[in-house]
Q: What sequence folds into this?
């Protein structure tokens, strides 16, 4: 038998701890440590450190180019439950578990378990760890979603509020106060008689083939990275916020959300005259921050950050000028094309979120449908930038299209699973699975 480059006990422990004692296969995720059944003084370990490329010649994915040191390094290992490890370690299953997939699983799991940014400071950069939705917002039953530094959703049109909207419930008083449990059992809407011309009138009744039923009461739990747990409880006519089980007398925001909303063009450029069109007061209204803060975002602390290499300057303290990467001159915002405008808003949102994160943990939420004219490459540039540059804020996106471009390895991607009328689970997908249509098999690998 050839020499085997087995992991040391220390390496196994490092792998187990990096994985948060959880199987790294995203379609499994079983805990790998627990109580012993036989002895209340003992624990049981059910995990195994598997080799990404085999420990010995002839083993699965063996890479002759690696040195013995590299082969037994934690970088060549992945923590799995015993069952998944046995599958991955079988030579005949090699084609099913290529090196890239296992590396992806490993990074992905470190992102899910929050062990990739282990320091307290880094954890503060992404405040939302978990959202539990119980009979609320179009979810039937009890669903928990884990969040990483970058979390993407697809299919949330099945919900009556996007995941970004659900998070805003914890951030904005107005959103919180408007939150109610939707009423159930609506089967039809009668739009009555609409007169078309004097002698003809039209009656319109819309029937829903499958009525959406809502529970009488719902709950939305959020767990933040500092382990604080907030709960919003709703009925059809009331909403209340709790910390754990204790009711809070008043609502105050538990996290900061910077968001891109609907119709931003009309909000940002609300002015009638051309001067008003370029005035930063529109941006201030749009992002819900003061004019001074917008000014600071443009001139001050965050001025070195630009996703698309844009440069900005202010004229007369409040008129914004932009220099696109391929242009030599600064231009007024009003001359931008629709696509450039989307990039500009995204760029500005990054600045505002960076600025905001200096004061309070911040989440940037984006509903892709609001920037749908941003091209696939622009969207991919944004997501890749978030993953690689690790900005000081968390990003959550509701995607209206499956991404066709981009290369991510740590993003947590979820497909909302259910009927058009109810979401019953959120399936965690790898990036490659997330990009494919469901019919092509966004199913589990195992
Ligand atoms: Zn497993």
A:
């Amino acid at each position: 038998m050839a020499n085997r480059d087995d992991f040391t006990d220390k390496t196994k422990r490092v792998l187990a701890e990096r994985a948060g004692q959880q199987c790294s296969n995203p379609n499994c995720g079983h805990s790998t440590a627990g109580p012993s059944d036989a002895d209340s003084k003992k624990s049981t370990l059910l995990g195994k450190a598997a080799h990404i490329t085999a420990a010995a010649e002839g083993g699965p994915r063996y890479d002759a180019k690696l040195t013995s040191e590299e082969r037994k390094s934690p970088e060549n290992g992945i923590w799995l439950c015993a069952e998944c490890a046995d599958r991955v370690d079988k030579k005949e299953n090699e084609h099913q578990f290529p090196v890239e997939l296992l590396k992806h699983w490993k990074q992905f799991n470190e992102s899910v378990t929050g062990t990739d940014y282990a320091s307290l400071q880094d954890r503060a950069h992404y405040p939302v760890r978990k959202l539990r939705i119980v009979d609320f917002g179009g979810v039937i039953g009890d669903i928990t979603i884990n969040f990483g530094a970058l979390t993407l959703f697809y299919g949330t049109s099945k919900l009556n509020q996007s995941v970004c909207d659900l998070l805003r419930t914890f951030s904005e008083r107005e959103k919180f106060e408007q939150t109610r449990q939707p009423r159930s059992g609506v089967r039809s809407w009668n739009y009555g008689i609409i007169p078309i011309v004097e002698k003809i009138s039209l009656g319109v009744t819309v029937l829903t083939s499958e009525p959406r039923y809502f529970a009488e009461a719902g709950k939305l739990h959020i767990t933040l990275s500092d382990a604080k747990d907030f709960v919003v409880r709703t009925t059809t006519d009331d909403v209340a916020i709790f910390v754990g089980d204790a009711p809070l007398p008043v609502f105050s925001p538990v996290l900061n959300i910077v968001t891109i909303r609907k119709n931003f063009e009309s909000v940002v450029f609300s002015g009638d005259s051309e001067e008003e069109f370029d005035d930063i007061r529109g941006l201030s209204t749009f992002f819900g921050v003061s004019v001074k803060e917008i000014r600071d975002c443009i001139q001050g602390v965050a001025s070195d950050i630009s996703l698309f290499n844009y440069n900005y300057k202010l004229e007369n303290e409040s008129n914004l000028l932009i220099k696109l990467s391929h242009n030599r001159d600064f231009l007024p915002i009003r001359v931008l094309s629709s696509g450039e405008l989307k990039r500009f808003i995204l760029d500005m949102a990054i600045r505002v979120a960076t600025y905001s994160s200096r004061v309070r943990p911040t989440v940037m939420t984006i509903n892709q449908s609001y920037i749908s004219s941003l091209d696939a490459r622009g969207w991919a540039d944004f997501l890749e930038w978030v993953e690689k540059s690790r900005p000081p804020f968390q990003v959550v996106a509701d995607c209206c299209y499956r991404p066709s471009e981009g290369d991510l390895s740590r993003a947590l991607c979820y497909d909302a699973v259910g009927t058009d009328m109810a979401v019953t689970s959120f399936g965690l997908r790898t990036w490659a699975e997330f990009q494919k249509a469901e019919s092509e098999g966004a199913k589990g690998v195992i």
